[in-house]
Amino acid sequence: MVKQEEFRLEQFMDKYENDIDYNLGETCCYSMTLNEIESLSGNKFDFGKLAESRLAYSYIKGSPELRQLISGLYDRIIPDDVVITNGGIGGNFLTFYSLVEPGDHVIVLNPTYQQLSSVPSMFGAEVDILRLRYEDGFSPNLEELRSMVKKNTKMIVFNNPNNPTGTVISADVVSQIVDIAKENDSYILCDEVYRPLFHSLNDGEEPPKSIADIYEKGISTGSMSKTFSAAGTRLGWVASKDKEFIRACWVRRDYNMISVSMVDDMIAQYVLQNKDVVLERNYTLCRNNLKLLKEAVKESGGKLEFVSPKGATTAFVKVNIKDGTSTEQLADELAREYRTLVVPGETFGYPGFLRIGYVNREEDVRGGMKNLLDYVKNK
Ligand SMILES: Cc1ncc(COP(=O)(O)O)c(C=O)c1O
User: Fold this and answer.
1) Pocket flag, ligand 1, residue 313 (CB < 6 Å)
2) Is the pLDDT confidence value at 269 over 80?
């Protein structure tokens, strides 16, 4: 049996998620209902078509319409470059399952979603972590990255925009990472489930392009969950110009998926057809709630500080308290005594930090941050 590490973040969330009033553990832009999308867009979801559709496997590869809509999110990707999966988590898993084997070396930029380092290790690869530092604004040290690359480095993995830090690796730095990978003919997996949530870039700053648009061996994973507020569809994808890799994905996928749900496929099509209004709603939510978070951090008088997020839905807040309470203990007590969920940095290997998901409802951010301030006030 393959060896598998416990997924610390998911286990922490599971402990409290349904027993709290203020949820700052969430990473999706506050999930939407079909009614809300209908009223924002003025376009009706075709419930009649759904009711008349036979509940069959339908298209094994995902409907042509859905793959067309997903390819439209990229510059160079065509429908044949897209593999539909169960969530972004399925896309990441399928990527490692299709490429990684014992004898391979994989470099992962951390902190990030634990799946991205645990799964290649589970498939027998030697995994090295490039640790990003708060003092560097969580930007990668490229010399360090270069020095870590070995002949057998199969893949460099990062997540942009990033969970948990909310930072964006700039277009320039991404292109230097591509140069490093190219020299060694390594793949790059970029988990892009938060694209295109680049909501708070500096004036005139261009967002980085998708890795699949700029590197032949670049693999982009995407999702309906975060940016498009439709995690309930459990629908994600892999996109790449590397035909051999895409074929390997299809071959593996036949053994563990067959197809995604045709109901999810129809709903995802509808959401993507109306993506402009969904994105506009979500950019506004990101920016407005980030303002509230910034105010709370300021009000903490130095007990909380952070690298201000430029994208995605979370911030990685550094906690400066002196009474010896760990952030894990803090998060446990906050959940139990204040009914407020935050994720301790320990789950990412960063004690002393809290991940705050701030793109849930406004009342989660207002109420949750008020409770967190109250908690740290006397510490
Ligand atoms: C970076 C990252 N990748 C992938 C996922 C998985 O999300 P989903 O399977 O809902 O797309 C998450 C969820 O938190 C995430 O933060």
Assistant:
1) no
2) yes
